[in-house]
């Protein structure tokens, strides 16, 4: 038997803040990236199966839907990477005061945007050069 | 005995097993190791994989350090994903039976696809 106990106000009560939104996004991108590993597994198994299966996997990933998913996964990856490093600093006890939390948070947004843009720019330049 | 726990929670056996710190450290270590590995993988995709044909890709995976790094990436990636997903499931599934079933399914599935991935890499790296 569980007795209903009073609960503290939950997420929907509070105004979204940079800190809470970034925390939620860290989890959301983590879950989304976990789903993305399935594509990595599929791609590896296709490569192991032979040239035809690999070609099929490559053209699936190069379709507009494949590219859209890859864009989503690259944004998520760079966000989770940058924000994850922010979390590692917190775990070491660094950067925990509110001003630093906000400035590193904004830096993570910027770094995510720059890294994603750079990755896609380079990928298309390289593909064109190849 | 931990006196902070109620008799009921002691009987149910829920709560701290005094092993949490190991998991906390392992999750952080996998995160740290994944930073260079994921950068290596992203750079490989950008500078090589996007423009490689099948034979070039196979030759690339067969280079010993690439085989090694790829397997390391897979093992750490799935360890890290599993640790993160477990945290989410622990936080949001409140029914103990449902939680146990979903958690076990997730773990079995992650182990299965980890082995499938490593086997695929080895088939490419060692296969004829």
Give the SSE map.
The complex is a heterodimer of chains A (130) and B (128).
Chain A (H helix, E strand, L loop, with lengths): L17 H32 L1 H12 L1 H28 L6 H32 L1
Helix pairs in contact in A: 1-2, 1-3, 2-3, 3-4
Chain B lengths: L6 H6 L7 H28 L6 H9 L1 H29 L3 H31 L2
Helix pairs in contact in B: 2-4, 3-5, 4-5
Description:
The complex is a heterodimer of chains A (130) and B (128). The mean pLDDT of chain A is 93. With 130 residues, chain A is an all-alpha fold. Chain A has helices spanning 18-49, 51-62, 64-91, 98-129. Chain A is extended and about 60 Å long. Chain B has 128 residues and is mainly α. Helix content of chain B is 80%, strand content 0%. Chain B has five helices and no strands. Chain B has helices spanning 7-12, 20-47, 54-62, 64-92, 96-126. The longest helix of chain B is centred in the C-terminal third of the chain and has 31 residues, at 96-126. Chain B is elongated, with a radius of gyration of 20 Å. The mean pLDDT of chain B is 91. Chain A binds chain B through residues 27, 30-31, 33-34, 37-38, 40-41, 44-45, 47-48, 51, 54-55, 74, 77, 81, 84-85, 87-88, 91, 119, 122-123, 126-127, 129-130, and chain B through 28, 31-32, 35, 38, 42, 45-47, 50-51, 54-55, 57-58, 61, 77-78, 81, 84-85, 88, 113, 116-117, 119-121, 123-124, 127.
């Amino acid at each position: 038997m569980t007795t209903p106990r009073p609960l503290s106000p939950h997420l929907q009560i509070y105004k979204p803040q940079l800190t809470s939104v970034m925390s939620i996004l860290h989890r959301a991108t983590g879950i989304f990236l976990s789903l993305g590993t399935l594509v990595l597994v599929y791609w590896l198994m296709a490569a192991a199966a032979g040239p035809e299966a690999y070609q099929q996997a490559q053209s699936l990933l190069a379709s507009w839907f494949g590219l859209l998913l890859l864009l989503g996964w690259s944004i998520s990856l760079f966000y989770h990477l940058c924000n994850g490093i922010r979390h590692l600093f917190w775990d070491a006890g660094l950067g925990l005061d509110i001003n630093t939390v906000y400035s590193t948070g904004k830096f993570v947004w910027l770094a995510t945007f720059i890294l994603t843009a750079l990755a896609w720019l380079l990928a298309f330049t390289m593909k064109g050069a190849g | 005995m931990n006196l902070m726990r109620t008799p009921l929670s002691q009987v149910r056996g829920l709560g701290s097993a005094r092993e949490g710190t190991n998991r906390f450290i392992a999750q952080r270590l996998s995160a740290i190791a994944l930073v260079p590995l994921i950068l290596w993988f992203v750079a490989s995709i950008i500078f090589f994989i996007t423009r490689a044909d099948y034979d070039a890709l196979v030759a690339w995976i067969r280079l010993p350090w690439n085989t090694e790094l790829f397997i390391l990436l897979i093992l750490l990636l799935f360890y890290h994903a599993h640790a993160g997903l477990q945290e989410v499931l622990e936080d949001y599934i409140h029914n103990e039976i449902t939680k146990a079933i979903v958690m076990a399914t997730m773990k079995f599935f992650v182990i299965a696809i980890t082995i499938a991935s490593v086997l695929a890499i080895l088939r490419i790296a060692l296969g004829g």
